[in-house]
Write a structure and sequence with these properties.
Elements: H1 2-20, E1 24-28, E2 34-35, E3 38-39, E4 44-46, E5 51-53, E6 59-63, E7 67-71, E8 76-79, E9 85-97, E10 101-105, E11 108-113, E12 120-127, E13 133-139, E14 141-146, E15 151-156, E16 161-163, E17 189-194, E18 203-207, H2 213-286, H3 293-329
Parallel strand pairs: 9-10, 15-17
Antiparallel strand pairs: 1-4, 1-6, 2-3, 2-5, 5-8, 6-7, 7-9, 8-9, 9-12, 10-11, 11-14, 12-13, 13-16, 14-15, 17-18
Helix pairs in contact: 2-3
Length: 335
């Protein structure tokens, strides 16, 4: 009995440690990124169960196993209790070196496979508001399996896919029907992206039990590829609009900074004039000569001018620092 009491805590300790270990860290672009509803800045730890929701700037979620997700503007990613990653909304660019990358999106389980030569996986995953999922692979490939397991699709470099939000259950087989092996076979759809001359988007070949499946699959695939490309264009347009807005904001701040720097230059020139007059008076005193009443009055005036310029320089310096901080906080999102 005592032995069993000792074993139980030993079994629980690794579970508790695993539950408190962070899944990765977050780099934010701007001030609008929230972690489980709480605004955060760069360096925040991300734990299993957290959700990451970006604003106009986006964010970078770096996992602990050479994987990362560049979360686009106004997008959301959720980290499961087992540290799995779900693309909830918007656009995310997933990257991995040498390791596979498992993700969830709508009714699909996604498996990213790095390129066999470079060992790098790079793919854009977009989950639309209606639940459709777009895949666009830059390196490696991504396979998508429906949660019911009755559909498998593969997206490769240059051949995007647009996945429906969900796959309906297959129709039940007719009563009394049997396969050649004596059992009832369920329809299974397997789609692989194939290259085809003249079709830049690619053609997906879908194998079904329908005799006319070849023609139907080609027509369906072309429509799917076109929709996937349209989704990517819309996502890029959204990102570029965010880039343009950020760039415009930076331009306005840069104009303010140039004005402030010009003001500092003017103040510096005024200080040089005062310094030359002071040097003249210092040289006279150093030679043992006495200052005339007019020179003493001039000295007092120079001191007053210097004090006024010092106050102006302090104000200008504060203005410059404020502008520089604003520029640092305005990060142009990556499309």
């Amino acid at each position: 009995m005592k032995a069993s009491k000792c074993i139980l805590p030993m079994l629980l300790v690794p579970c508790l440690i695993a539950a408190t270990m962070p899944a990765g860290s977050l780099t934010t672009f701007g001030e609008a990124t929230a972690l489980s509803g709480i605004p955060v800045k760069s360096g925040a730890a991300v734990f299993p169960g957290d959700s990451i929701k970006t604003g106009a700037g986006g964010a970078l979620f770096t996992l602990s196993d050479s994987k990362s997700i560049q979360i686009g503007p106004n997008s959301e990613v959720r980290v499961g209790k087992d540290s799995s990653v779900e693309i909830v909304s918007g656009m995310s660019r997933v990257q991995s070196k040498t390791q596979t990358f498992a993700m969830l999106a709508s009714d699909w389980k996604l498996q990213g496979q790095p390129d066999s030569k470079t060992g790098v996986l790079t793919a854009d995953v977009v989950r639309q508001a209606d639940g459709k999922v777009s895949l666009n692979v830059a390196s490696g490939q991504v396979s998508a399996r429906s949660n019911r397991g009755n559909v498998v699709m593969v997206a490769q470099v240059g051949r995007p896919l647009l996945l429906p939000a969900s796959i309906p259950m297959p129709d039940p087989p007719p009563q009394g029907g049997s396969s050649a092996s004596g059992g009832v076979s369920k329809p299974v759809i397997v789609a692989a992206i194939l290259g085809a001359a003249g079709l830049g988007a690619g053609i997906a070949a879908i194998a079904t039990q329908d005799d006319n499946s070849d023609l139907k699959s080609q027509v369906t695939s072309l429509a799917t590829q076109n929709a996937a490309l349209t989704t990517q264009i819309n996502a890029l347009r959204t990102s570029l609009n965010a880039v343009a807005a950020a760039a415009q904001q930076i331009k306005g701040l840069t104009d303010q900074l140039n004005t402030a720097l010009a003001n500092l230059t003017n103040l510096s020139n005024q200080l040089d004039v005062i310094q030359r007059q002071i040097n003249t008076l210092v040289a006279k005193v150093a030679s043992g000569q006495s200052l005339t009443a007019a020179e003493q009055a001039s000295l007092a005036s120079l001191q007053a001018q210097q004090a006024a310029l010092a106050a102006q320089i302090t104000t200008a310096s504060n203005t410059v620092n404020t502008i520089i901080t604003s520029i640092k906080n305005t990060v142009v999102p990556t499309p």
